[in-house]
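yo

u said u wanted the structure for the complex thing, so here. seqs first:
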Amino acid sequence: MTTKRILVIDDEPSVTRNLKLNLESGGGYEVLGENRARNALAAARKFQPDLILLDVMMPDLGGDDVAARLRADPLIHNTPIVFLTAIVSNKETDGHEATIGGELFLAKPVDMGELRKTLEQHTRN
Amino acid sequence: MNSESASAFTLEAVDHFQGFRLLRTIKAWPPSLATTVLIGLMAIVGLVDYLTGLELSVSLLYLIPIALGVWTGGRATGYTVALASAAVWFAADWLGRQSYGHWYLPVWNTMALTVSFLVVAALLASLCEVNENLERAVAHRTRALQDEIAQRCRAEGELNQALREVREAHAELQRTQFQLIESAKMESVARLAAGVAHEVKNPLMTLSLGADYFLARKLDNDDETQLAQDMKEAVKRASSVINILLDYSRIRPPQLSLDNLSLAVENSLILVRHELNRQRITVIREFAPDLPLVQLDRARIEHLFVNLFINALQAMSPGGTLTIRAFASDIVEDAADQAVTVELDDTGHGINPQNAEKLFEPFFTTKPPGQGTGLGLAIVRRIMEIHGGTVRLTNRPDGRGARVTLQFHSKFEGK
Ligand SMILES: Nc1ncnc2c1ncn2[C@@H]1O[C@H](COP(=O)(O)OP(=O)(O)OP(=O)(O)O)[C@@H](O)[C@H]1O
Ligand SMILES: [Mg+2]
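structre next:
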């Protein structure tokens, strides 16, 4: 089984750090955390992730802008993006991932079990 | 009012008296008939006079046509009949060839009778006129009263109409005010909620990830596992509070989907669990099995139940009981439709029936300032409207508290 590469873009270091810790300790994932939205594209190019977890609300650049930049890049544009958001209630996502306006969402706080399921389903092969 | 009914009463009484009715009929005779009858009567009396020769005693009979003349034709006719009667009397007397001692006796008698007849006619005519005047006055007064009543009714109607319009305008104003405040409140709440969600959920995420991490590693003992699970549970609860705020603040069209009412009730109970425990409230659930699903906007319906639970909690003293009943019943008019009723019974102080009408009005509250805004039930009613349902707040039949009755329709598909 190959390790999947996950790029986490979130302005909270504790979130990126702990996601990395959880996913990597469980095995099967290699995680890179990036806390500055402006560095997202550069990080993605360098890391070549199989999936990107992207926070919607970040102080320097919004998640939608980051996504637009990522998708405009020929190297990255095929990489699936799952948004993480604090302002969607679990009821709307029903605790699972949800599609809003064609985008995949996970509501914060994310449950690791749910996260793993989503990753298994959507990472590029 | 009183004088009107009193006069109506007297007029009726007069009408009911048969004699008066006959007199009225006679008075209404056409002149030709009256004349014929008068002449006929005088002829008969004259004939009786002539045949019997009783003279003066018979002469009293002439008073009949005289009275009738006055009654049917008035004063002038009365005088005419009086003179005519005297003439007939004289003729009958003369033709009867009564032997008088002196020539002047019949002349004297005739004169005396003529004067008597005229005096009687005059008296009767005066009486009739007095009566007529009286009737005219009564009729006049009656008409005036009727006019006055009609006018008052009209004025009262106009006043009522104006009052209705003012009331409607007031209600409309209140509705608009409510909507304005609600949307203004929503806008600021939405911004606040988004900010709070961001600030609180990120740290919650860190906590949750930490707990997940410990749970994933085989912990040394059950206590530690339990601790980590409690931490996750705590995170879930805290985040559900934020979710209420988010759901509440969102202005969005209703999102209806076929859903289970009892699940919605359970979820809402979780949201007020802390308060229920603090007040040691017993919750009794009486859900009928296989309740039909109904179209629900889950977030809104939970908001509705939370409002109702909080009202019940605020009405009850510690140790109270909240009974939640749900059952379906067939609808007579439509076999395909079913009514799904939810009843919430509390053991609180109940409602004052005098306020029953107002409870659902925005800003109506009986709670001290700062404790209630009076928007809770107004929002509940709006949410029920979205669901094509109704809500009522009454006292329980057993008098032990208040009862909220919600009614949904299984067939409702949204508007
Ligand atoms: N379960 C109940 N028992 C007794 N009275 C009730 C109950 N529910 C509501 N009421 C009465 O109805 C009034 C209006 O209720 P509503 O929920 O609209 O406003 P509120 O509770 O006073 O304020 P808010 O809900 O805005 O905090 C209350 O002030 C209370 O008098
Ligand atoms: Mg209330």
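Chain B has a mean pLDDT of 84. The beta strands of chain B are 257-259, 282-287, 294-296, 321-331, 334-345, 390-395, 402-409.
cya
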